[in-house]
Amino acid sequence: MSTPALSKPVVTRIAPSPTGTMHIGTARTALFNWLFARRHGGQFLLRIEDTDRARSTPEATQTILNGLKWLGLDHDGAPVSQFEQAPRHAEVAHQMLAQGSAYKCFSTQHEIEAFRETAREAGTSTLFQSPWRDTDPEEHPDAPFVIRLKAPRKGTTIINDAVQGDVTFRNDQLDDMVLLRSDGTPTYMLAVVVDDHDMGITHVIRGDDHLNNAARQAQIFAAMGWDQPVWAHIPLIHGADGKKLSKRHGATGVEEYAAMGFPAQALRNYLTRLGWAHGDDEFFTDAQAVEWFDLEGIGRAPARLDLKKLENLSGQHLSVMDDDTILAAVQDWAARAGEPPIDAARLLPAIGIVKEASRTLPQIVERARFALIDRPITPDEKAMKTLDTVSRGILNELTPHLQNASWDRDAMEGVIGDLAQSKGLGLGKLAAPLRAALAGRTATPSVFDMMLVLGRDETLARLTDAVGPEH
């Protein structure tokens, strides 16, 4: 099923709180919003919900910006600070007060708790019902007050959700929530609605842990006579054990996945597929994701994070990425992971022969190690065993033949194959000491691939070092 034509330009948003790392769930929500906006030629906006002044920091805000940039999710326009919109939020609360859809409540915290305690003892609802809801303003005391929404007490509030279907809430289960605190600061519920309205948000795509909030927020939209956005509440990401994703499941922050060496393309592909489907397609490009993405493809069941699937997709992306793109990604990974700078001139020629067998960027570097190390090569214990006296003698005999051979794969295979045959050996018997001489290891890329990457002079120098002075 495809998404039907929309009546007005699409505007989506991501609205993270800058209180720590960028959670992988936030990243997926941002991705879904970005894909939907780009699919429909709309806008994807960023709002920083920084009203918690004690926990919101510039560093955490920068972490969000860095995470979105690394993921390749470009937002339209400058980020909006929710805290800076506080005067506008208060203005709307007073507008609702003036039009009768909100009221002043002078009840103290002690009175509210006393009401709830009495209700608990009586076995009745503990939803606070303010005695000030219908009080004549003439009877208001000169005392601190909050502004509460005058919510409907009868009937139902229905959220027409593009993912969850119609979700019904009984109004008698929703209290008159506070819109403006006694110190004049707006609550989260009010701020979100005003910001979404003022930013022209047409689709609110977010985690289903906000579904209950939608009922309350819908009442504010209705009280102000504003059009509601299309609601789309997506299931949360769970760990492999089916429980809500947390630190005990491993990496939960975007920067952790970047430091682990997954290319951003692979993580985008994986997160898109995590809770959304387009037939049986698993591996796809950004262009295909933008072309295919719709809200109907989002499932209702929680998605489970599977690191092996991510690694598999990562390997598929690396195999088709061009070498220069991989080099840039490796250098970015090395900087993030605190690794020493990597010699680009040495690594680039080796990428083409190692990327097919690699699943992460660190694996690219590890498999290309032969091209990054300096002479003299020190073989590890296993490789050293292949460099016995007989093998060294054969390598010594091979060197002058390679010196005069054309430096291409067919010529090298011919020279080495002929020598092996003359010794009554299979090619594999020569490959092991060659690997040890060229890379210092027994598990390496193809011997001929390594020789082509290293070049004639470096290859012969490594063979000479391995043979040793006794030959």
UniProtKB/TrEMBL annotation:
The protein, known as: Glutamate--tRNA ligase
Domain spans labelled Aminoacyl-tRNA synthetase class I anticodon-binding: 328-466
Its EC number is: 6.1.1.17
What do the Gene Ontology cellular component annotations say?
cytosol
Chain positions of motif 'KMSKS' region = 244-248
Where the record places motif 'HIGH' region is: 16-26
Q: How does it assemble?
A: Monomer.
Keyword list, A-Z? Aminoacyl-tRNA synthetase, ATP-binding, Cytoplasm, Ligase, Nucleotide-binding, Protein biosynthesis
**Database matches in PANTHER family:** GLUTAMATE--TRNA LIGASE, GLUTAMATE--TRNA LIGASE, MITOCHONDRIAL-RELATED
The family database entries (PROSITE patterns) matched by this protein are listed as: AA_TRNA_LIGASE_I
